[in-house]
Amino acid sequence: MTRVQRGDERYRGGDPAAGIETRHAFSFSGFYDPDNVRFGLLEACNEERLAGGAGFDEHPHRDVEIVTWVVEGELTHEDSTGHTSVVRPGDVQRLSAGTGVRHTERNAGSVPLRFVQMWLTPTEFGGDPAYEVVRGIADGTPYALRRAEAVLHVRRLTPGERTAMPAAPWTYAHVVHGAVRLGDDILHEGDAARLENTTPDEPGEAQSIGTSELLLWEMHREPSFG
C-alpha cells in the first residue's frame, strides 16, 4: 500500500514574522490530526526554511532521534552537551536526546537556509544524549540509527535512473530535489510517499525524471511505549 502526501498538503507552521517557515508532514505542536500522527517510527518530517539570522531558541528534547538533512545554506547547531557544529548540504546530523538534552538551531549566515528534519521514536528509551555529524555521506551509503530499528538511505539519481525501495514493513520516501515516478504517481520536490510491507520480491521502484535526490527511511518496528 502506498500513500502520497503532496508538499502543499503539509500543515504550515513556524513563525514567518521571525523568518521561520515550517511545513509539517505529521501532527505537530498546535496542529493535530488523529489520522496522521506517525508512520512506523517516524513522528515528524519538517521542512524548515530560515531567513538569515533566524533560528530556534534553546529548547529541550527527550527520548527522540533527530536526524537533519540540509538542502541549502548552513545550519549552526549547539547543544547542552557541548557540541557546536555547522551542518552543510550532504551532511547527516543526528541528535539522540536520550534522558534529555537542550539545543539551539539557527541560520548564522545571510543566505536562506532550508533543511529537512526528521524525528523518530527510539526502540529503547533512556541513555545518555549523543551527537554525530557524518560529512558528505556517499550516495547509497546506509545510515543506521543505533537506538532505533531504522536506516536512512540517500539516493541521488540521474535522468531515467531507477532505484528500488528498501524492503521493510514501513518505508518513507521524501523528494528533496527534482521529481521521480513511483508506481502511477509522479512525486515532485517536497512530496513524500509512505509504503507498507515492501518485500525483496516486490520492493517498489522509483525512476528519476531529470536529476533528483531522495531520502528513504527503512523502518522495521513501530513504537512500543509499554
* Strand percent estimate: over 45%
Shape: globular
Element order: H for helix, E for strand: EEEEEEEEEEEEEEEEEEE
Number of strands: 19
What do the pLDDT scores average to? 95
Determine the number of helices (DSSP H or I, runs of at least 4 residues).
Answer: 0
Main sheet record: 8 strands, antiparallel
Category by helix and strand content: mainly beta
By oligomeric state, this entry counts as single chain
Give the CA-CA distance, first to last residue: 28 Å
Low-confidence stretches: none
Helical amount among residues, as a percent range? under 10%
Radius of gyration: 17 Å
Keywords:
54% strand; mainly beta; 7-stranded antiparallel sheet; globular; single chain; 226 residues; 8-stranded antiparallel sheet
Question: Short description, anyone?
Answer:
The protein is mostly beta strands and 226 residues long. It contains no helices and 19 strands.
Overview of this protein structure:
The chain is mainly β. Helices cover 0% and strands 54% of the residues. The two termini are 28 Å apart. Strands 1, 13, 14, 15, 16, 17, 18 and 19 form an eight-stranded antiparallel beta sheet that branches. It has a seven-stranded antiparallel beta sheet with strand order 2-3-4-11-6-9-12, with no helix packed on it. The protein has strands at 2-5, 11-15, 20-24, 42-50, 55-61, 65-72, 75-79, 84-87, 92-96, 101-106, 113-120, 130-134, 143-144, 150-157, 162-164, 170-182, 185-188, 192-196, 205-219. The chain is built from no helices and 19 strands.
